[in-house]
Amino acid sequence: MAAKIKNCPSCGRIFVPMNATQKLCPDCMDKLREKEHEVVEYVRDHPKVKIGEIIEATGASENMIKRMIREGRFIQTGVQMTYPCEKCGAPITQGKLCPKCSAALKKDLAGAAEKIQAAREAKLAERPSAYRSERTTQGGGKNNPAPAKPKKYAGDGLSNRYRGLR
User: What distance separates the 2 farthest-apart alpha carbons in the chain?
Assistant: First the structure.
């Protein structure tokens, strides 16, 4: 089975990924690991540093530093770094939302799910059942008059129901 060839998004070289999650060529992966190691060492030496200072000192991208914080790479070094919540800007150490925004989002989603379920149940209640009562099938009642009796064909005495069976 032939492996799929990809272009490295960083340098543009063609490479064959070793697994489905590999996005960079081996050379760029090595450079990324070196840059991450440099960032971790800088943070270890300067524990109270802010993200902006890390970017200036190491030349690493903000996205890389935020990813490393989300992955808990700095907690392993004994430094707890924070970054802003994507909704309100409160400082957080993991994920994309602070606990307050996360709880509000869960509440909104639960409310929306209840509305959808209620609408679905209302729609099902409007639809007539597949099983009709005897009263509706035989006729009678105020809203369902008795069905008209089938007409017979002249001469053979068969009803309309058996018309195609001749």
Answer: 108
**Interatomic CA distance for residues 118 and 123, integer angstroms:** 9
In sequence order, what are the residues at sequence separation of 6 or more whose Cβ sits closer than 8 angstroms to the Cβ of residue 152?
A: 158, 159
How distant is the alpha carbon of residue 38 from its chain centre? 35
d(CA 114, CA 120): 10
Show the tokens assigned to 78.
């004994």
Query: What H or E segment, with its residue span, contains residue 102?
Result: helix 99-126
For residue range 30-73, what is the model confidence (pLDDT) as tens digits?
999 999 899 988 888 887 788 888 889 989 988 888 888 877 77
> What residues contact residue 84 under an 8 Å CB cut-off, 6+ apart?
90, 91, 92
Note the pTM of the prediction, 2 decimals.
0.51
Q: Position of tokens 């270890």?
A: 44
CA 157 to CA 161: how far, in whole Å? 12
